[in-house]
Amino acid sequence: MGTGNTIPKLAALDSNTLDATSQGGPGSAVFKAGLEATRDGVVICDARLPDMPLIFVNAAFERMTGYSREQILGQNCRFLQVDDHDQTGIEKIRQALKNQRDCLVTIRNYRQNGELFHNELSLSPVFGSDNQLTHYVGIQKDVTSRVAREILLRERGAELQVLNKQLQRLASIDPLTGLQNRRMFNLTLNREWRRAMRKQGVLSLYMIDIDKFKELNDSLGHAIGDACLRTFGAALTRVFCRATDYVVRFGGDEFVVLSVGISSAEAVAQGERVLRTVRDLEFAGSDLNVTASIGLCTVTAHTDVNEQDLLAAADTALYRAKNAGRNRLDSMEISTPDDAR
Q1: What residue numbers bound the domain in which 185 lies?
Q2: Is residue 111 located within the same domain as residue 187?
Q3: All residues at 6 or more sequence positions from 100 whose CB lies less than 8 Å from its CB, including other chains
Q4: Digit-coded pLDDT (tens) for 2-22
Q5: Which residues pair with 124 in a beta bridge?
Q6: Could you give the residue numbers annotated as active site?
Q7: What is the CATH number of the domain that holds 33?
Q8: In the beta sheet, which residues pair with residue 258?
Q9: How many whole angstroms separate alpha carbon 52 and alpha carbon 207?
Q10: Positive or negative torsion for Cα 151, 114, 93, 126
């Protein structure tokens, strides 16, 4: 099986030379000296014999594995995997042998002392003058350090992904209430506005304040104030519980809700439900009576207005609700050129 960068077949090697090398024949001295001098492990196996036994290993291979040539000549090289044969690289080797092709793989091998090492094996077939397969030559590198670095990089990459997700969450979530924060809301509003523009969809925006929260916070302390904010935020999520409802802590005691695809009448009904829910809230460890003021604007997205107009209208409606005595909802429409006609 090929491996991207094709390894040239060792056609220049003569099978007689390989045989002479393994047997120490007189014509093999220079060839054998070259194999012994290389820093990489070199093995030759005889493909004509059953189980393709090793007929030559060089000194670098002996140093790499801890085995002497006397111990391993005549064996198949698979003994280096011990019982660790379930490897992708091993299957690639089997396919290469089956198809009489070269291959380049990294596999797990074990030294004589049992120590694991990672072995990059370049395996090439050798053919005789009659184009019949006679031998395989394996060039082996100990790449244990490289594999360890790659594993470490993958682990660090996975850790960085987890950290990035955590940072993204921290950047988008209010830590006190667990709701979306203002930064995330701006992105959500922009996305939903563009989507509504494509489909002439309806968006309802609520600006919601806890009435007289500063006085409550100053008189009862920040712990009670924080508990109030958490309980208030949780109550909003119970009222606005659809996948297309976005509940946001906008800042301080101000909350925003973006609700997609409901009519003006439905939006008002939801706002009134919020007022009733807030009045019925109970706060652990206190006798607080909390109310809220709500500004609401519902609009069908079109080119005459934008999302900032929606925000400004809801904010104006909230201001009117507060000036009218709080504990109420005020809704406002956005005037457009079509309305003037």
Answers
A1: 173-340
A2: no
A3: 125, 133
A4: 333 433 344 445 555 555 555
A5: 137
A6: 253
A7: 3.30.450.20
A8: 205, 246
A9: 80
A10: positive
